[in-house]
Amino acid sequence: MTTQALVAWARSGAMALTGRPGGPPLAAPGRPALAVEEALGRVAASAAVRTGEVPQLPDVTLLAERAACAGFTRNAPWSCGGRFRAVRARDGFVGLSLARTVDIALVPALVEADGVGDVWAMVEDWARAITVREADERIALLSLPGGGLPAPGTSTQRAPVSRRSGGRRARVGARPRIVDFSALWAGPLCTHLLTRTGAEVIKVESAARPDGARNGSAAFYSLLHSEQRSVAVDFDDAADRARLTQLVESADLVVEASRPRALHRLGLDAETLVDAGVSWLSITARGRQSDRVGFGDDIAASAGLSAIDCDGIPVPCGDAIADPLTGVVAAAEAAEALLDTRARLIDISMHDLAVVAAADPPAPHTVSLRSGRWWVDCEAGAFPVLDPISRCATGPAPELGAHSLEELL
Q1: Cα dist from 281 to 220, 340, 346, 357, whole Å
Q2: What phi and psi values does residue 330 have, to the nearest 5 degrees?
Q3: What is the pLDDT averaged over residues 295-318?
Q4: Surface-to-core class of residue 94, CB atoms within 10 Å of its CB (0-12 exposed, 13-18 middle, 19+ buried)
Q5: Tell me: the pLDDT tens digits for 151-162?
Q6: Is 85 helix (H, G, I), strand (E, B) or coil?
Q7: pTM of the model
């Protein structure tokens, strides 16, 4: 991490979220905050070409907006939201998120034990007796969100972003239509930024299983989804699926964060649509060819994007840092694709983006408390560690299904 990257990290609000509750805020490895600033610049530049106007976009403080809305603070060794932590294995550390009921229910299978007690105690006892590689393989086998934490200097498994050119697009205009199948944070942040550039964004949710983020901070959900449209689809209904296909075919870009087979079941094939002139942006834990799953905290940790506390224990960086990092890079890729006369298939691996962002150790620095505020001293000078802040939404998010498929066709 250069001193410039360290200063951006302190300014973002994410550093204030990194570390133990009673201890100092910690530096992240590499340059995650700078990577976000650079990607925001790409979004703005592409939008200015498309519309003739420079959009009003957030700055690097978006890294900590969810925490500001939810009231999260430093919480190591747990994540800010309390659902992820790293535990010791025989030769290193293993990270695991237990955010969903289905994941908690799989803990006995993971540790090969009968019954359910204190699930984290069970995980700790299990991990202590095996290697990082063995733990990682078993986590992958059970499709749990987590994995082994790497040794320093880990390389990417693949390019963080891969692109394939497709058919000629029907139009290239100032107000592109985006159909968004994504949920939670990374994909919705991408489409929120595209909304800020003047795009029409239509959020598609299952009527039976809507976006789980609706159950979180209402202020944060509205921040990401105001000025968008919402359709609720019965994925088991043939007529709904037919209308959904029409909607997708009318889009300039589709954004999704599912494994390919999930949308294949709806009759939506990315390659076919891209060849027909519809761009497609896919966000997954480790790329479209991988079955690994994950959330922002465990993906970042498994990529080496962890801070190290005074006891040598890896702790989460910021709040689910891989999510906002990926969301902004995805928005940059989407904004550039919307300028192309040919459709693109864009395949983004959250894991490999985080590996690249974590590539270097933190720059030399000290952190001290002065008059109630933490300060970073480094070669570039002294800089305050800023608290998380959030913008205000421009209005409420639309209710689930506020718009019909028919009115959008």
Answers
A1: 23, 14, 5, 20
A2: -60, -40
A3: 94
A4: buried
A5: 765 666 789 999
A6: strand
A7: 0.96
